[in-house]
């Protein structure tokens, strides 16, 4: 809701010209003694402008000033149903300056914006730039009076504080009593919580933990939760930065947040960054193009923190640097390279002293991570053997910086440095001679359990990278110590234990594990670990280029067959179009110009979102057999990459696209691959995709040559009549071997009849199609008439026909009956959810009763049936010896109808095994007829009576039949049948005596602890083979749960 408070606009927007005056922030604020609120706002803005204008060497990522805009991806977790076939038409990208724009003109309601990104993506830098731009009047003019910036890591160690304390700390340099002025208009406040989700204790389970009083002192975590849950300053807006791995924890606290992911550098941004940070355009572009010679490093350097590190240590580059850069494939390698270069460029102190400083930084980092501490005093540094003097200070400036406003407090330049050095500490912790050995008491496992991040922790990812065999010498040269040999075995053993534990494995996000294995670069071990996953389900809103690189490394090394599902809305970092003018290197010396241009052209080929995944699939060792690509925003170039897979891959047999479109050019490339002689694809599914007539024509051409494709499915993929005509032409070709054709919900209403004629013509020529699914299409009676004309052809070999939800009436049953009398192959017929009525089923049964009929499965659920058709159905049960499954769900057949069916069930020739009578308006009166049928029928194994008012008396009667020796029932579904404890004795008796029953569903009834205990006791002391026991367990007492556990001990295989 828009804020109702109104006041005069205080000032005009500031401009960049105001930045020419550079004064000390502290002195300018301290010298003012004005009382006008406008003056305080201007003082604060001037303070921010001067603070964030600084871009000295101690600033990590100098606030992205060299980049005009950094795009954010605003996440939507649902796919719009308004777009064609539900396929997302465009990404929602937004610039940071517009995140707090009003939803409606003049409406400034509070917003919560969560800025997400992986470590080093520039979240804090973007926040600082936003604050600078706000202070300069360039963003959200008039929207906020004050920005309250809180570094959550830095305050996590403090004593209980109040919201007022947070505010006054922000304005500590202002000497006047302005607190009342600041909080007078809370809707004009923006609280910025930087790094909030990374606090280890962000859950406030009880409302008492929260505060609504700005002056109440609370533990830091409770205070921050109060701000996020809007119990404090509910009218104010929030800007929160978070790592992607922390979002699951944060979601429980937020109400309708706007979630935006900060994107990695695009090529143009990275190029601009290198030009701004490395002196000399030629030198900058030389480094930039050296990166592009190493595809892996090129991807990693798109992360802003990596670009910053490389620019900082490559101001001067030699041949050794170029050689080393070609070997950098992992994040761990880049960090080691940074520390190696800093040590090699050491001036003023001997090498051993520099290594000693680095060892001290390792133990300092580990102790800080153990204690959740990011701020360190001089005494902390000295305790870890780090001396602060003029000679060592320049060296330490590569890793530490002084906290602004306090010359004696230090923090790491970037939190990832602390995480990396913690990992180094543990790989070097191998003897007692290290002076800082005892400073950190916890093992690496204990710290990770404490942090609770598992494989998503950057520290454990660095650990995997550091135990790589090729890193041993580098680590020794940089840190002066040997890697602990036992750590590799310890870490790998721990990983295998996590993977073998099913509960732990379910909590692992596969891509986090992939990053760890990628850092290690051990192909054999990666394959061994991935084999534990059996199937890969990757479900995130976004994946980066680095994610897909790590993913491809792991899946191509798997030793066993894998099923893989990739579901995301965005695969980020793949640029479809290359604007040459932006990327061509500037003029360089003649000798090198050719090689640079060649490198440019080589690496600027279009790279599709599936580039790395397809690289893995092309590897002969890759064992992925089933691949699902869900959403993913695939483009035309993906078709080219997928096409190349089929030239070499011998394992991929199933491929499914969900809500994707490759466009016509992409589909043309894709189909070219399907026609390759080495293509082994057997199943192709397209669910809610956009497929044109031209694309269908390309698929039809595949059918004329591909001898392996046996299943083709279009599900809710709307196809024009012209497209289906081309497809049918391909299906009629003698070389077509498609056996299963599914067009569920894919026909347009206006063309259904003509399409049925096209399909009918297929069966004149095609003898391979055994399964035809046309469900959820408006075929109508006329369409079915055309279709049956083709189905009756002697060449037709259809065994399964699904016409569910096809707008059929009793008229269609006449044609279907005619088809049944002629068909020698049809075994399954689905006509679910059509208004056939009793007359229609009677016509249908005439065909089922024909001597040619070999029908086994007949689905007549929701067909508007009554008892009137049950006599005919009973005759089918009596005389048709092939029918084994009959589904009559949600028909009003009633007790009379069931009585008639039971007459058929009692006949010795009845072969029915599965009878579904769910929601058929049955009462206790029918149970005696069922009981009598069970006395004689030895074939019925599955009976579903759920959602019928059988009651206790009816079940008691039914139990008599269940105890009879002739009863061979294996599954009994009596959920929601109005049962109570009164019938539990009869059920307990059945469970004690019946040895064939494997599943019993009693859910949705009114049993109490007494009834459940009686049945459990019976099962414990019986020889029952029951494997599945469905009951409601939500409100059972401890004693009942104890007996259920005893049952689990006596029958380990049972589930409920």
TrEMBL record:
<keyword id="KW-0547">Nucleotide-binding</keyword>
<dbReference type="InterPro" id="IPR032675">
    <property type="entry name" value="LRR_dom_sf"/>
</dbReference>
<dbReference type="InterPro" id="IPR050637">
    <property type="entry name" value="NLRP_innate_immun_reg"/>
</dbReference>
<protein>
    <submittedName>
        <fullName>NACHT, LRR and PYD domains-containing protein 3-like</fullName>
    </submittedName>
</protein>
<dbReference type="Pfam" id="PF17779">
    <property type="entry name" value="WHD_NOD2"/>
</dbReference>
<dbReference type="GO" id="GO:0071345">
    <property type="term" value="P:cellular response to cytokine stimulus"/>
</dbReference>
<keyword id="KW-0677">Repeat</keyword>
<dbReference type="GO" id="GO:0005524">
    <property type="term" value="F:ATP binding"/>
</dbReference>
<dbReference type="GO" id="GO:0050728">
    <property type="term" value="P:negative regulation of inflammatory response"/>
</dbReference>
<dbReference type="InterPro" id="IPR007111">
    <property type="entry name" value="NACHT_NTPase"/>
</dbReference>
<dbReference type="Pfam" id="PF13516">
    <property type="entry name" value="LRR_6"/>
</dbReference>
<dbReference type="GO" id="GO:0045345">
    <property type="term" value="P:positive regulation of MHC class I biosynthetic process"/>
</dbReference>
<keyword id="KW-0433">Leucine-rich repeat</keyword>
<dbReference type="GO" id="GO:0005737">
    <property type="term" value="C:cytoplasm"/>
</dbReference>
<feature type="domain" description="NACHT">
    <location>
        <begin position="111"/>
        <end position="243"/>
    </location>
</feature>
<dbReference type="InterPro" id="IPR041267">
    <property type="entry name" value="NLRP_HD2"/>
</dbReference>
<dbReference type="GO" id="GO:0043124">
    <property type="term" value="P:negative regulation of canonical NF-kappaB signal transduction"/>
</dbReference>
<dbReference type="InterPro" id="IPR027417">
    <property type="entry name" value="P-loop_NTPase"/>
</dbReference>
<comment type="similarity">
    <text>Belongs to the NLRP family.</text>
</comment>
<dbReference type="Pfam" id="PF05729">
    <property type="entry name" value="NACHT"/>
</dbReference>
<dbReference type="InterPro" id="IPR001611">
    <property type="entry name" value="Leu-rich_rpt"/>
</dbReference>
<keyword id="KW-0067">ATP-binding</keyword>
<dbReference type="Pfam" id="PF17776">
    <property type="entry name" value="NLRC4_HD2"/>
</dbReference>
<dbReference type="InterPro" id="IPR041075">
    <property type="entry name" value="NOD1/2_WH"/>
</dbReference>
């Amino acid at each position: 809701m828009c804020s109702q408070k109104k006041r005069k606009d205080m000032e005009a927007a500031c401009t960049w010209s105001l930045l020419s005056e550079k004064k000390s922030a502290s002195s300018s604020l301290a010298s003012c003694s004005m009382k006008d609120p406008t003056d305080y706002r201007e003082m604060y803005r001037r303070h921010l402008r001067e603070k964030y204008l600084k871009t000295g060497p101690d600033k990590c990522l100098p606030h992205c000033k060299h980049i005009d805009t950094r795009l954010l991806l605003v996440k939507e977790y649902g796919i719009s149903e308004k777009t064609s076939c539900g396929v997302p038409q465009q990404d929602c990208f937004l610039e940071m300056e517009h995140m707090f724009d009003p939803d409606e003109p003049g409406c400034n309601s509070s917003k919560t914006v969560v800025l997400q990104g992986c470590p080093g993506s520039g979240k804090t830098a973007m926040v600082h730039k936003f604050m600078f731009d706000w202070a300069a009047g360039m963003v959200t003019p008039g929207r906020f009076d004050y920005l309250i910036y809180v570094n959550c890591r830095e305050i996590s160690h403090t004593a209980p504080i109040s919201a007022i304390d947070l505010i006054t700390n922000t304005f500590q340099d202002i000497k006047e009593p302005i607190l009342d002025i600041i909080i007078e208009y809370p809707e004009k406040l923006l609280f910025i919580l930087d790094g909030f989700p990374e606090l280890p204790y962000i859950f406030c389970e009880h409302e008492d933990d929260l505060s609504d009083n700005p002056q109440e002192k609370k533990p830091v975590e409770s205070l921050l939760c109060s701000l996020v849950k809007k119990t404090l300053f509910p009218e104010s807006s929030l800007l929160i930065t978070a790592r992607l791995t922390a979002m699951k924890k944060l979601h429980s606290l937020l109400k309708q947040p706007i979630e935006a992911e900060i994107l990695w550098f695009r090529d143009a941004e990275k190029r601009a960054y290198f030009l701004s940070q490395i002196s000399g355009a030629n030198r900058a572009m030389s480094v930039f193009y050296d990166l592009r010679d190493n595809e892996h490093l090129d991807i990693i350097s798109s992360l802003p923190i990596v670009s910053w590190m490389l620019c900082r240590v490559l101001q001067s580059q030699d041949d050794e640097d170029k050689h080393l850069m070609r070997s950098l494939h992992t994040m761990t390698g880049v960090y080691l390279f940074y520390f190696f270069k800093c040590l090699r460029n050491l001036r003023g102190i001997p090498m051993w002293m520099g290594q000693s400083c680095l060892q001290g930084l390792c133990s300092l980092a580990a102790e800080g991570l153990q204690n959740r501490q990011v701020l360190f005093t001089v005494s902390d540094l000295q305790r870890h053997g780090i001396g602060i003097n003029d000679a060592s200070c320049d060296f330490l400036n590569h890793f530490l910086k002084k906290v602004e406003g306090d010359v004696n407090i230090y923090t790491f330049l970037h939190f990832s440095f602390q995480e990396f050095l913690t990992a180094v500490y543990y790989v070097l912790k191998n003897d007692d001679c290290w002076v800082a050995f005892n400073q950190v008491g916890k093992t690496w496992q204990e710290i990770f359990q404490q942090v609770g991040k598992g494989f998503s922790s950057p520290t454990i990812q660095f650990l995997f990278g550091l135990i790589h065999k090729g890193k041993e010498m580098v680590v020794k040269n940089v840190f002066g110590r040997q890697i602990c040999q036992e750590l590799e075995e310890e870490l790998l053993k721990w990983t295998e234990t996590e993977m073998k534990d099913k509960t732990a494995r379910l909590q692992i996000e596969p891509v986090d594990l992939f990053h760890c294995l990628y850092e290690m670069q051990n192909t054999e071990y990666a394959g061994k670990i991935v084999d534990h996953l059996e199937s890969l389900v990757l479900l995130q809103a976004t994946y980066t280029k680095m994610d897909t690189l790590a993913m491809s490394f792991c899946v191509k090394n798997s030793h066993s067959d894998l099923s893989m599902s990739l579901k995301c809305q965005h695969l980020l970092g793949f640029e479809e179009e290359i604007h040459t003018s932006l990327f061509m290197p500037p003029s360089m010396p003649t000798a090198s110009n050719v090689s640079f241009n060649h490198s440019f052209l080589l690496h600027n080929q279009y790279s599709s979102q599936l580039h790395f995944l397809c690289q893995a699939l092309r590897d002969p060792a890759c064992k992925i057999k089933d691949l699902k690509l869900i959403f993913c925003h695939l483009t035309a170039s993906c078709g080219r990459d997928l096409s190349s897979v089929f030239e070499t891959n011998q394992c991929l047999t199933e491929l499914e696209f969900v809500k994707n479109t490759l466009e016509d050019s992409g589909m043309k490339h894709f189909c070219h691959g399907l026609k390759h002689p080495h293509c082994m694809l057997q199943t192709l599914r397209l669910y809610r995709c956009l497929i044109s007539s031209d694309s269908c024509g390309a698929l039809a051409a595949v059918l004329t040559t591909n001898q392996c494709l046996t299943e083709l499915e279009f599900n809710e993929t709307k196809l024009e009549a012209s497209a289906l005509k081309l497809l049918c032409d391909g299906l009629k070709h003698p070389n077509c071997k498609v056996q299963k054709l599914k067009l569920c919900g894919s026909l347009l209403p206006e063309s259904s009849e003509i399409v049925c004629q096209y399909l009918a013509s297929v069966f004149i020529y095609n003898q391979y199609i055994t399964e035809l699914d046309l469900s959820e299409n408006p075929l109508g009676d006329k369409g079915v008439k055309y279709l049956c004309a083709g189905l009756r052809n002697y060449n037709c070999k259809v065994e399964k026909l699904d016409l569910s939800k096809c707008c059929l009436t009793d008229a269609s049953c006449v044609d279907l009956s005619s088809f049944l009398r002629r068909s020698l192959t049809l075994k399954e017929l689905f006509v679910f959810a059509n208004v056939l009525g009793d007359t229609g089923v009677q016509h249908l049964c005439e065909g089922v009763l024909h001597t040619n009929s070999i029908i086994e499965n007949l689905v007549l659920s929701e067909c508007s049936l009554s008892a009137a058709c049950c006599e005919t159905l009973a005759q089918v049960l009596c005389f048709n010896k092939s029918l084994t499954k009959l589904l009559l769900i949600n028909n009003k057949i009633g007790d009379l109808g069931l009585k008639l069916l039971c007459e058929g069930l009692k006949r010795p020739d009845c072969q029915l095994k599965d009878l579904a009578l769910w929601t058929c308006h049955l009462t206790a009166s029918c149970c005696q007829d069922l009981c009598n049928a069970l006395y004689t029928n030895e074939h019925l194994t599955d009976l579903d009576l759920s959602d019928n008012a059988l009651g206790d008396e009816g079940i008691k009667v039914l139990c008599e039949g269940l105890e009879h020796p002739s009863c061979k029932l294996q599954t009994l579904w009596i959920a929601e049948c109005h049962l109570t404890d009164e019938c539990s004795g009869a059920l307990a008796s059945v469970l004690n005596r019946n040895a064939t029953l494997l599943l019993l569903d009693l859910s949705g009834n009114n049993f109490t602890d007494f009834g459940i205990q009686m049945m459990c006791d019976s099962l414990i002391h019986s020889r029952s083979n029951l494997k599945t026991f469905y009951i409601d367990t939500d409100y059972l007492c401890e004693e009942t749960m104890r007996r259920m556990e005893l049952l689990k001990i006596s029958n380990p295989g049972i589930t409920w």
